[in-house]
Amino acid sequence: MLKKILVYSLVLMITSLSQTLAQSNILLVLNKAENNLAFVDADSMKAIGKVPVGDGPHEVVFSADGKMAFVSNYGAQTPGSSISVIDVVNRKELRRVDVSPLMRPHGLVVLGGKLYFTAEVNRLVARYDPVANKIDWLMGTGQNGSHMIVVSADQKRIYTSNIGSDSITAFEFNSVPPAGSRLSHISVGKQPEAIDLSPNGREVWVGLNVDGGVDIVDTSTLKPIQRVGLGGRPYRVRFTPDGKRVLFTMLASKEIILYDAESRKEISRIKLEQVPMGVAFSPDGKTVFVSAVQPDGVLKVDLEKMVIKGRVETGVAPDGIAYFGK
Length: 326
What we know:
Layout: H1 2-23, E1 26-31, E2 36-41, E3 46-52, E4 57-62, E5 68-75, E6 79-87, E7 92-98, E8 105-111, E9 114-119, E10 124-129, E11 134-140, E12 146-151, E13 157-162, E14 167-173, E15 181-187, E16 192-197, E17 203-208, E18 213-218, E19 223-229, E20 234-239, E21 245-250, E22 255-260, E23 266-271, E24 275-281, E25 287-293, E26 297-302, E27 307-312, E28 318-324
Antiparallel strand pairs: 1-2, 1-28, 2-3, 4-5, 5-6, 6-7, 8-9, 9-10, 10-11, 12-13, 13-14, 14-15, 16-17, 17-18, 18-19, 20-21, 21-22, 22-23, 24-25, 25-26, 26-27
């Protein structure tokens, strides 16, 4: 009887721990040079574990409930062709999905319980169903270097940045893909990479690697309406959750720059000792987590005061980053 009670108590403790972990403020960080995913307690900014993933992992996203995560294994010298499915609560890789012949999976978005991703070599976007464990839809961009992807909340619009074609591809659907589609290519500046869609769906902002700024595209006309010069390459372009501000991580100048989305004017900037890379916001938009290199680490930044309020080392060459919590 005592043995049964002890076992039951242990089960309750493990269940409670798993539930607590699932509800915690968790940061996931990909270490590209180590081929692993680091877990960080976002409150204390302490590393709490690592999970091996595929070669050259680049991007990571959470499922809607925060219990799972997905990693695009882009590859290093050899093109990658897999996506890692991560059990966040138990901190383990559930499976490594072979998506070949799709190569160089990169940009990721989770919506409607499914994972949208780009396959750069194949010049297309695809959708993975984790429940059925299969790719259930794909569609070509016809453009070179389709790298990053953003998807509207209703899944009726998808946009990719095409580095090698100096364009954005816009997919429009009557409903959830593949229902009634139209494809358009939008010419923008040189080597577009970083991209984000405003929360209201009205604008796409795309970073230009060569031209040192961003092009802003009106989604109703599918035409660029303004270029904002930044004086350098924005590695990432991200709207704050409320859509009122846009944040840029600047490689050459080692800065984080915050702009007003409506006026297109700079609000503030912060000079760093490291090169800023990936970006993940808290849901209230008051805090941003930034992966950085040279030296490697992750920064926790107060966006209201534009000051660093925490940092942690997660591994070598941190890049892709995702946050789940309050």
